[in-house]
Specification:
The chain is α/β, with parallel strands linked by helices. It is built from 19 helices and 26 strands. It has 3 domains: about 110 residues, 3-Layer(aba) Sandwich (Rossmann fold), CATH 3.40.50; about 130 residues, no CATH class; about 300 residues, Zn peptidases (Aminopeptidase, 3-Layer(aba) Sandwich). The chain is globular.
Amino acid sequence: MDQRFGILRESEEYAQPVIGIDIMEESIISLEEFKRMDVDVYLFIPKKISSDNLSLLKKSIPIIKDIFSYGNDLGNELLSISERFSTKDSIIISFDRVVRGMATRLGFLAYPTLDLAVLGIKEGPIHFIKLSGDKEQFYFLPKLIPYHLERISSDFLEILGVTSEQEIAEAIIRGINIRTFPINILLEDPLFVRLDRRTPEIKKELGKLKILAYETDKLLVAIGPGIFNDSIQIHGNHGHFEVLVPNSSLLKPNLQEKIHYSSLLTFSNLTQNVSVKRYPDVLEKIPLICPVSSSSISDDIDKYCGNVPLDSSGPVISRHVRHSDNLRVVNGLVSDLRAMGYCAYTYNFNYGGVVLKNVIADLPGKGSYVIDPDIRNAIRKIFLKYPFPDPPDPWIKDLQELTRNDWIEKNKLNSLSPAHSRKSAEKIFNFEPWFPWWKKNCDLPGIGSELVIIGCHMDSTAARSPGYDPVSDPAPGVDDDGSGMAGTLALARYFSKFKGKLKHTVRFCFFNAEESGIVGSKEYAITLKNMGAPVKAAICMDMIGYNSDSRRIFEIHAGYTDPFIRDLSVPIAQLIANWASFLGTLEPAQIYKGINSSGGSDRNLYDGAINRSDHSSFHQQGYPAVVVSEDFFANLVSEPVSDPNPNYHDSDDNTIDSAYVADIVCAVAFAIRQLAQS
């Protein structure tokens, strides 16, 4: 059980800690394929769950043969599985290559995802390849599972991905250029390593890597289960790792219904007594006083970067994903956000043999429409009263009392299995898993409410410090990215007063494992895409605190290799820049909107932050996004030289200009408020 299979519905308000699983679309397709192949599938959940709870879960997903749960001892669990099942007849499927490595040593065949396993079993050997060609020809390659996609022009694509030998032959026939790479995709993961500059020191380090391809500004390397992504050290490079992952959603457009006409139709036809009307389009006047103070920024930096105790265990030493303090920081953020009145929770994902957590907090938007009476919450109460669909009668009976007499029969809920009837009902009423509606303390977003995401990364590293041990050594990460964390917390405090006032949902995200290859945000963005989340904009803040001179220059990066996604993102960057200009405390923002990641300092042509921070995870899924940063990248010849933090990825990253951070965050705050109201 990992994020690629599905997401657990966890809620603290129930006697049972897990009340369901939202399975990803690709996983459902693969499970049905396994069923046709007469293959039994067993699910192992990395969480201690009672036998009663497991029994209820099993009934809710009958396509699974059986479900088991385990704690933190993954090695013993895999050993137990090897004793219970024949290794020659069984396959372990895990997104985490550490798990695949352990399983392989026990004699299992291991695959990263269900769809790759189906491809390998049905089609024989699979290969990691690069394909270059006309985009129309890729429609004829249905078995291609992409890992990375770049639009070279409107009609020409380059894709890194996995497919079968038969599909490779089809691609060659269709004139698509093919390059194969010597990587064992069952055990190794591909990784981009970005290079800003080359020195003799870097050349020496490159000799330790399994290099698949050497490009102008990056390397494509393969790393096995015994290597952590961030153990590869390329000195002096910003955001230099990007893990490439199987990602079928890369080839899918965003099809979310932005104002949910189908939901409106459903609710208006539900009973004789429901009325639907549009909220008036009234924008609240925005006070022109900065809502963020340098003292609040300093207080949060002190708390999460080790200057004062975080909790009873003392100060934070490091936020690195392999340090025990990472989980303390997660718990601290959830606690702080809940104290502000937010619905705060975690998004769990597997990496390096452990489960890591992003922290998420929602301010639900009121949406575009009023439904009177509030029948959505009445239906939600029924779903919450009966979280498991077996037996089906109680919740269907209660639902029938709210609806027209023929509604249940008209939607064929009585003719479906309990699990399918419940899933159908949830979808009909727009209870989509991109918002945790099953958590009782989370108010529902209104119909027509989209997502405005504000994010940062919560992990840190001091990988440039000589002899650095991520398990035990300090990594304060005050600028990278304690400054972004403090900014996001400041925004959460500011927006907490707008509960029920904004049209769109504002979601605060603290992503984990950014330093390990942009892992946490990438997995989260893929999940949102698969769940049809209506993302209006994503704004990330990464390193917004270092300023060694009086110029107070800052950057906004909207560039991306796909000009269409870039064009969606530039207006967000311009909105932030406009607010910064209006406030007058910063120099004009440097907006980067190039489609190439290297080659010069012309910001209209190049953007060095492409695929280098968490905003790129949203770009890759087709969402408009930007990242705000200090003056890190090269400036024009006519401008002052850039002012990057010399202590980047070092144990000496312990100083920022809190007033500079506050002024940047103020501009972001007003931009978010405008986006969330319009």
